[in-house]
Design brief:
It is a single chain. By secondary structure, this protein is an alpha/beta fold. Strand 3, helix 4 and strand 4 form a beta-alpha-beta unit. The radius of gyration is 14 Å and the shape is globular. The protein has a single domain, classed as Dehydroquinase, class II (Rossmann fold, 3-Layer(aba) Sandwich), CATH 3.40.50. It contains five helices and five strands; from the N terminus they run E-H-H-E-H-E-H-E-E-H. Helix 3 packs parallel to helix 4. Helix content is 38%, strand content 19%. The structure holds 1,3,4-trihydroxy-5-OXO-cyclohexanecarboxylic acid (DQA). 1,3,4-trihydroxy-5-OXO-cyclohexanecarboxylic acid binds next to loops. The site of 1,3,4-trihydroxy-5-OXO-cyclohexanecarboxylic acid has 10 residues, from loops.
Length: 149
């Protein structure tokens, strides 16, 4: 069975590359996704990439993923700090989620220091730029492989 991972990006992440590049860097979402697709391929996994600015859409994708994904790399954007609904969706689905942030949310404004997602995530990576997604992918694939044996 092929290991299948979902990459989920939340609000405003479609603007990566042009959005506050001093904070989020110059890499576009398309570049990030294609680099991750290649990495997934090299690891023998399949990666499906989705981005939405809408909370309900993100919830629907999480619900769908419970029937096919072995793990989720999730940058919920600002919903990280506000969304009980996304946290509930992760809990309800039982999906293994790694929360990823390009910036170090703990070095920024106080309202970014709290994550609603962290308590229901397997782990959190914050502040490593696009490398954080790559590390999350590696960790999820490794975890899924160890569960196959
Ligand atoms: C972010 C951090 C959030 O606080 C912010 O609202 C984002 C991006 C990050 O990747 O660093 O939209 O999740």
């Amino acid at each position: 069975m092929n290991i299948k991972i979902l990459l989920l990006n939340g609000p405003n992440l479609n603007l990566l590359g042009e959005r506050e590049p001093g904070i989020y860097g110059a890499t576009t979402l398309a570049d990030l996704e294609s680099a991750l697709q290649s990495q997934a391929h090299a690891l023998g996994a399949e990666l499906s990439c989705q981005q939405s600015n809408h909370e309900g859409q993100l919830i629907d994708w999480l619900h769908e993923a419970r029937s096919w994904a072995q793990g989720v790399i999730f940058n919920p954007g600002a919903y990280t700090h506000t969304s009980i609904a996304l946290a509930d969706a992760i809990k309800a689905t039982g999906l293994t989620v790694i929360e990823v942030h390009l910036s170090n949310i703990y070095q920024r404004e106080a309202f970014r220091h709290h994550s609603m997602i962290a308590p229901v995530a397997w782990g959190q990576i914050s502040g490593l730029g696009p490398e954080g997604y790559a590390l999350a992918l590696r960790a999820l694939v490794k975890r899924a492989e160890s569960q196959l044996v």
